[in-house]
Specification:
The protein is built from two helices and six strands. It has 129 residues and is α+β, with helices and mostly antiparallel strands. It has a six-stranded mixed beta sheet, with helices on one face. Strand 4, helix 2 and strand 5 form a beta-alpha-beta unit. Helix 1 crosses helix 2. It starts with a strand and ends with a strand.
């Protein structure tokens, strides 16, 4: 079964060098999302506002793929300042069932596109695959 490109106008558009997501072998691989608007302006509210915006974009992409945040099995979070870890977590926790949190890695990075503070990518199951 060939891979399938996922695209939705509802989420932040991808650059020409990557897709919003790819479906392959029963999983959705969502590219990294930063907290920006569809016209690539970083949202207000610091790391919490950016985390919410990134996860809302991911939610829309997963929906377009036939999945959802409840099906995320692994997330990777990139922070430009690890001192923002607690604030990011406060926003992040609102998007997932506390009794079924996905596996996750969080790493500190030197910089992110557009000066963002956080970027999130994930892998989710397709419920009917």
């Amino acid at each position: 079964m060939p891979k399938e490109v996922v695209y939705t106008l509802d989420a932040v558009p991808p650059l020409k060098t990557f897709s919003q997501a790819i479906i392959s072998k029963g999983f959705v691989y969502v590219s990294g999302n930063i907290g920006c608007t569809n016209d690539f302006q970083i949202v207000e509210g610091g790391v919490q506002g950016q985390t919410v915006a990134a996860l809302e974009s991911i939610r829309k992409i997963l929906h377009a793929a036939g999945s959802g945040l409840q099906h995320v099995v692994k997330a990777n979070v990139y922070l430009t300042n690890l001192a923002d870890f607690s604030e990011m977590n406060r926003a992040y926790l609102a998007f997932f069932d506390e009794n079924a949190m996905p596996a996750r890695t969080c790493v500190g990075v030197a910089s992110l596109p557009l000066g963002a503070s956080v970027e999130i990518e994930c892998v989710a199951e397709l419920p009917d695959a």
